TrEMBL record:
Source species of the chain: Micromonospora maritima
InterPro entries for this protein: NAD(P)-bd_dom_sf (IPR036291), SDR_fam (IPR002347)
Pfam families recorded: adh_short_C2
Gene3D superfamilies in alphabetical order: NAD(P)-binding Rossmann-like Domain (3.40.50.720)
SUPFAM superfamilies found in the cross-reference section: NAD(P)-binding Rossmann-fold domains
MF terms (GO), sorted A to Z: oxidoreductase activity
Similarity comment: family membership: Belongs to the short-chain dehydrogenases/reductases (SDR) family.
Enzyme Commission number(s): 1.1.1.-
Location of region: Disordered: 242-265
Name of the molecule in the record: SDR family NAD(P)-dependent oxidoreductase
PANTHER family (alphabetical): 3-OXOACYL-[ACYL-CARRIER-PROTEIN] REDUCTASE, SHORT-CHAIN DEHYDROGENASES/REDUCTASES FAMILY MEMBER
Alphabetic keyword roster: Oxidoreductase
Length: 265
């Protein structure tokens, strides 16, 4: 039997990139999948490409009324909701130097990335039963700063703090809440780069490659399944080892082995 057979999942920001790969993996593992996003045509294409029961649910996740209607539509179609994946994010909004950051971009980043997670989780938790799971998509930017991405990194810090706090709140209801922190993951912007630029992105990663949406989706499927029944409030990093390094490749000190103890220089 497939890992998620009989389960119903809602994936926000599921029309492209990591979100679409998550939808594909959950569907392949047996779940009925509701795909959220702002672009109706993109959602229609995504749903048409899934192997099992699927539903397009366009909505702005920062709009409380729209989120409530979205969750109601999922329950009306499938009769239940077992898995929520909070993937929607304004990833490129407000990118640039701190002193040039528009407060409106800061506010919108938090509206989508943090408020959206809050609204969707509350709406979902109201209809979920024991055994359900919430998986939030964070970023290594929550704990390792990106340059020129203050708003984005701040929202992902909020995602991880919220994950821990919400996990405590929902544990008595039997609902698990975890997060995934991806590192360098290929997307449509990565695909547009030339080979030199792609190689430069992969160079700092210890496993020697940029990750894929499928790499992240596999972990989502695990956390959504009964295989993870005793895991809640955790953040799993999916970055090929990128964030465990003290220094970038090529900058480690030379080990002097001439003495009896050895000495780093």
């Amino acid at each position: 039997m497939s890992r998620l057979a009989g389960r119903v999942a809602l994936v926000t920001g599921g029309g492209r990139n990591i979100g679409l790969e998550i939808c594909r993996r959950l569907a392949a593992d047996g779940a009925a999948v509701a795909v959220n996003g702002p672009d109706v045509d993109e959602l229609a294409e995504a749903v048409a490409g899934l192997p099992g029961p699927a539903l397009a649910v366009p909505a702005d996740v920062a709009d409380a009324a729209a989120v409530d209607a979205m969750v109601a539509a999922v329950v009306d179609r499938f009769g239940r909701l077992d898995v929520l994946v909070n993937n929607a994010a304004a990833t490129m909004l407000g990118r640039g130097p701190l002193l040039e950051l528009d407060p409106a971009d800061w506010d919108r980043s938090f509206a989508v990335n943090a408020r959206g997670l809050f609204l969707c989780t509350v709406a979902a938790a109201r209809v979920m039963v024991a055994g359900a799971a919430v998986v939030n998509i964070s970023s290594i930017g929550a704990t390792r700063a990106h340059r020129n991405a203050v708003a984005y990194d701040a929202t992902k810090g909020a995602v991880e703090a919220a994950t821990r706090a919400i996990a405590l709140e929902l544990a008595p209801r039997g609902i698990r809440v975890n997060a995934i922190a991806p590192g360098a993951i290929a997307n449509d912007r990565f695909a547009a780069l030339d080979d030199t630029a792609k190689a430069a992105r992969a160079a700092p990663v210890p496993l020697g490659r940029v990750g894929t949406g499928a790499d992240v989706a596999a972990v989502v499927s695990f956390l959504a399944s009964t295989d993870a029944d005793y895991i809640t409030g955790q953040v799993l990093t999916v970055d090929g080892g990128l964030s465990v390094q003290a220094r970038p490749p090529g900058t480690d000190p030379v080990l002097d082995t001439s003495g009896p103890e050895g000495q780093q220089t």
